[in-house]
Amino acid sequence: MKKITRGFAKIIYNILSFFDRWLITPITKLILRITDFFKKNSKTVERLLNKKSTLLVISLLLAFCTFLIIDSKSNVTIDQYAEVLYKQKVIPTYNEELYVVEGLPKTVDITLIGQKRHIFLAKQTPSNGVTVDLTGLKPGNHKVTLKYSQKLKSVDYRLDPSTVTVTIYEKVSQTRTLTYDILHKDSLDSKLYIKSVELNRSNVIIKGAEYKLKKVATVKALVDVNNLSNPKAGKIELKDVPLVAYDNNGEVVDVEIVPSTVDATLTVTSPSKKVNINVVPKGELAFGKAIKSITPNITFVTVYGDEKAISNIQSIDVPIDVKGLENDKTYNITLTKPNGITEISDKTISIKVALDVSVSKEFSDIHIETENLNEKYIVQAMNREDSSVTVVVKGSKGIVDNVSSANIKAYIDLENYGVGEHEVEVKVKGDDLKLSYTSKTKKVKVRITEK
Predict the structure, then answer these.
(1) What are phi and psi of 117, to 5 degrees?
(2) Domain 80-170, second-level architecture
(3) TM segments (predicted)?
(4) Residue 105 class from Cβ within 10 Å (0-12 exposed, 13-18 middle, 19+ buried)?
């Protein structure tokens, strides 16, 4: 123990001797020499200090030294600068095959603080970006710190946000049936029609947190018409159609879809058909007036659209308002496209209506027909008078004279009528819409029974 103490004391002694020899002794000698110099030359120094020029030089030297010191300090303060790097991508590290991470921002803002030249260098210096290491974290909530590696140490940085709370879920997968939606249909040439869409696969795999997969109601391929280059009738191939998952409310569900895109084959057709124009007068003319003629500038149009809609359409009705009309008139009407029709060859039509003096003529024993009777029922008139009616036809004399009973139909609409006795309104219509048809008997009695 004594040997250790002596050794330690010897080390302390050597250290003190080193400082005494090389630091304390030289400084002491320097001070003594300066003191001796001033003692020996005190009168000379006093004379110099009494001179104004000496004092002026000393003042200038002290002022210059003070300026240098303050300037060096102020430069450090004044040259401080801050610049924000917006939306810097966050790169997480974790096992993406096993886990799903929620709550982690995709980007953050980085504020760089320092002198301008240093910030400029920092921006040019490559870095590993903003990272967060989630390796080893289990499912659950975790508070993690974002890191930004910058080799230039003269620049400070701050992240916004710098810490976040993330939730880690186990990743599960399911197979779902793939459907499609067609976007921007209105951008397609109105004479073209997308008859069908075939995808190169019918099923996809969705991956994510279990609670997210339960929300997915459908997965759709979004076929965008705007991505078709110069579409024409025929088959069109569309590559890399994106897939999106939706919930029951049509909201997008953020899950991984494998594959993320598919290919689609579109069958584009241009179905068309020529149909007649059928002008339908609406309303009652002025008293004593009748329609002598209706002359449209076109009698048929070509319609384009859905094949089913085209097959069901035989004519296009064009209503014109003749209520209270007293004189001849020309109507300019914009044609309305029926359901399923995307294009009509003519957009407008001009219709000339000529009036005449109204005459009337009666047609008796017009048999009453039935419409919309349920197939499980049969109907009978309560008496002979309820089986036929007299119809009054009014119009221009030249037209009325050419009308026969065969051109007139009297009927009763039995839709929603069941078993029993009923009083039903009589309706009348005729082949020529320029004429008016009225039954002298307004209602008839019928009996409905089961077959």
Answers:
(1) -65, -35
(2) Beta Complex (2.170)
(3) 53-70
(4) middle
